[in-house]
């Protein structure tokens, strides 16, 4: 008879696919989990070591190992995520950013969960942005501009609409023909968003769309800016999640210069959005030193006026991955989701 600890029989591993993760938590629960994870990081109740990066140039790819521990049962685990651009050319096609998360029991170190991480990554990224939006966007913000019609864009629509009274979603994508199928898929998956007007934006209308938006999400792989600071209206809030390398830049320098900037981690400063204006001397390090977890914890001020432009620059933190995975695993145990495997 195995000893039962924390609702899990020792030696039993719960395997959760994307379909189980979608069932486990409500959107607001996911947002709260991620906000609390950032607070834990800011208050030194979480440990996030440097990620380990293994380049695999023969596949034009990279594999990253990202561990984290959150105190008091918040989660102990490792995310392994890779970039393999050629995956979508395979038959059948595979995700180009595959990943998984392994969770462990703090006390015994036995593995407790194995979670598919492609969907979970989009979910936790959007949840972090939604938490930032809750603290930084104006209360009456109702026009959302999504730049990038992919998994991140979809998750951001689904979660930000829980935080602000979104009435209109403007969607721009470099390949315009992908927008209509994207909108149709959202309407199928999220019937609760039927009251929202979705509008496809052509590139020649992007400047005007930026000027109408109260909240903007950039979720592209752009190497040259797609968002121009001169187009922004006063009071806009921006969530920039696409750029994560020094050679990637979604935001032009003017956007960063005129914004009050918050970052999810020190790694955000090495992404092109912030690194380029820093290297050019257009901003100083203090301009990009506001930690989003400290804002959530009430340790630093947020929006200073209705005219201020605010920016949350996110490159993703393992604290989000492990906190979200742990909360999903706990809910899955209670609802008996997924598959149990006797591993040990």
Shape: globular
Helical region count? 10
Radius of gyration: 20 Å
What is the number of beta strands?
A: 18
N→C terminal distance: 13 Å
Strand content: 25-35%
The chain-level structural class is: alpha/beta
The helix content, as a percent range, equals: 25-40%
List segments where confidence is low: pLDDT < 50 over at least 5 consecutive residues.
1-7
Largest sheet: 8 strands, mixed
Q: What's the SSE pattern?
A: EEEHHEEEEEEHEHEHEHEEHEHEHEHE
Q: Could you tell me the mean pLDDT? A: 94
Question: How would you describe this protein?
Answer:
With 344 residues, the protein is of the alpha/beta class. The chain is built from 10 helices and 18 strands. The strands form 3 sheets. Strands 3, 4, 5, 6, 7, 8, 9 and 18 form an 8-stranded mixed beta sheet that branches. Strands 12-11-10-13-14-17-15-16 form an 8-stranded parallel beta sheet, sandwiched between helices. A two-stranded antiparallel sheet has the order 1-2. α8 links the parallel β15 (259-263) and β16 (290-291). It starts with a strand and ends with a strand.
